[in-house]
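Q: I have 323 residues here and want to know how they pack in 3D. Can you give me a structure?
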Amino acid sequence: MKLSAAYPFIKEDLKQIEDKLYLAIQADHPVLREASTHLLKAGGKRIRPVFVLLSSQFGEVKNEHVHDVAAALELIHMATLVHDDVIDDAETRRGKETVKAKWDNRTAMYTGDYIFARALETLTGFNSTKIHKILSNVIVEVCLGEIEQIKDKFNFEQNFRTYLRRIKRKTALLIAVSCQLGAVAAGASEKLEKALYRYGYYVGMSYQIIDDILDFTSTEEELGKPAGSDLMQGNITLPVLYAMNEEAFKTRLQKCLSDENTLDMEQLQPIIDYIKKSEAIPYAYRISDLYLEKAYDELKRLPDNQAKKALKTIAKYIGKRKF
């Protein structure tokens, strides 16, 4: 099943948001315009706008600002991707050249900054201190998450709590805020707003854990990048953390990753194969499922409508996705 089959009733809204995204990145400078358009055309699930639109259906106010909020959150996400690719020295994303690969690091960083600025500009017509404050806070947290990820690269002494805090900032918060701001923009009650925020947080945590599993279990064709890329870059994810409980494996991993400058994927392949065959993958799936169960519990607090049904379907899809 395609994810979009869960929410056909917002298809036209998503098309309008896509048009809004395209217009938002049309810079006067040709390089900024081309780099931003290149990123936009690389595609993506647009899951954050989807969450904004679905959450807005629990409010009583229907207004154009819901689309502005959805576009702003997707632009923020896009900006973080460009910056991520520079930090990770990534050549491909979703099977296509990254901005840093097609141009250079400096162009990529300025493109990310430009898209961030356009995200904030998209909301200038929205007279809501609350929305601006929530967005400012989440941008700060996302930046902190990126710094923490850099700091923890090749750190073999980090723990489960460190990992959860990092993926909260990296992924879960932006999804949680997408759900929250959709509700706020549509005038939903505070009770529903909080339930939607928590739903988004739990789904976001599961989403990133599944991403970290798929980095080992999917193919390069499915991922749009080489399998094991995260570990190659020194990112210690949940499956790796679990596998490192075995001291012999931890020693082997440290030895393999001791010189990141000479490491290649062929050297790392036995490590990847070991993790794939170990209990690390089933364990990570169990943690993902725990978060999804909490997400389902939050949905019980919401009134029944087509948006609630779609949110439940999305959660199920996230838990079972293969790429």
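Q: Anything worth noting?
A: The mean pLDDT is 90. The longest strand covers residues 92-93.
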